[in-house]
Amino acid sequence: MPEKSEMTYDEAQRLLRPEHLSPCYLVYGEERFFVDNILAWFIEKAVDPGLRDFNYNRFDGTKVTPEEILMSAKSCPMVSPTRLIVVDDVDKVVDPKERLLSYLNAPVASTTIIFVAQKPDMRTKLFVKLKKQAVLIHCRPLYENEIPPFIQRSATARGILLSKDAILFLKEHLGKNLVLIQTELGKLALHSGKEEISLDTVEQVIAGEREHTVFELLDSVCERNLEKALRVLSLMLSDG
């Protein structure tokens, strides 16, 4: 069977449908914000809130056995078409008898299992099998140049209109911490109206939230990014 194509986080947001769930997913990558959002979508859309105690299980791969995962996977969902299982750190599951591999050959249609891993070794048997059998969703960290568009999209989703200078300030002041970016946008939403939020307003709302360090400055110099280095230096000086 040919390997299934992999989706990015943005593609998963557009393409996932609760009425067309696959038996197996592999959600992997180092951007935990994206991973958590994907898992939250599945929990909200795939399981009736009133039946989650019966039809939803989440396992820690460092503690669970393959037998426990499969016993849950093979159980019939209660008053629901779907049972949902999340296995965190699936690369840590000890499975000498390769029972998970056997299950993937014939997964239960009424069960959706989401295997989660941060840095999986795609050369191991389990992940080679998952590349063929599962739907892959890659939650990689954003590149530096992807942060401003992410801030813009997130602001728009909250009904916030930001100036270009405000977006640049948020990027340099908050870095790649997507959770912190969302938190600060939530604060800015309280100050938003129909007009564009200025740089001055952003500075007043989130001043002091992130301390710029000499390490960021050194990174910028090593990257030969003079513009970024000067911005970070300016912010360090303004932070005292």
Description:
The protein is α/β, with parallel strands linked by helices and 240 residues long. The protein contains 12 helices and 6 strands. A 6-stranded parallel β-sheet has the order 1-6-2-5-4-3, sandwiched between helices. Helix 11 packs antiparallel against helix 12. The longest helix has 15 residues. The protein is elongated.
Topology:
Blueprint: E1 6-8, H1 9-15, E2 24-28, H2 32-46, H3 52-55, E3 56-60, H4 66-73, E4 83-88, H5 99-105, E5 111-117, H6 125-133, E6 135-138, H7 147-157, H8 164-174, H9 178-189, H10 199-206, H11 214-222, H12 226-238
Parallel strand pairs: 1-6, 2-5, 2-6, 3-4, 4-5
Helix pairs in contact: 5-6, 7-8, 8-10, 11-12
In a nutshell, what does this entry contain?
With 240 residues, the chain is of the alpha/beta class.
